[in-house]
Write a structure and sequence with these properties.
The protein is α+β, with helices and mostly antiparallel strands and about 80 residues long. It is built from three helices and two strands, in the order αββαα.
Length: about 80
């Protein structure tokens, strides 16, 4: 759904969590959606497709409410 409905995104990374050295991991999947700016993110979240995608994430989350975070990436290349 995110691929089709989230306007303005530049990249999506979907990760399945396999385990944790501390025991059972608190998350099963992590989805990272990249936008070129905070304004683009806000416009997407306010759009019909954004609202549908966020609503779907809430409805399919079986381990409690999903956690939505806004972050700024810092990349180091070696």
């Amino acid at each position: 759904m995110a691929v089709a409905k989230l306007a303005g995104k530049t990249k999506i990374v979907a990760t399945r969590v396999l385990g944790s050295p501390a025991g059972d991991p608190p998350f099963h999947r992590i989805a990272e959606v990249y936008f070129p700016s905070m304004e683009a993110l806000e416009q997407c979240a306010a759009s019909e497709g954004g609202k549908q995608t966020i609503g779907n994430a809430v409805s399919i989350s079986s381990g409690g409410a999903p956690v939505f975070l806004v972050a700024e990436e810092e990349t180091f290349v070696f």
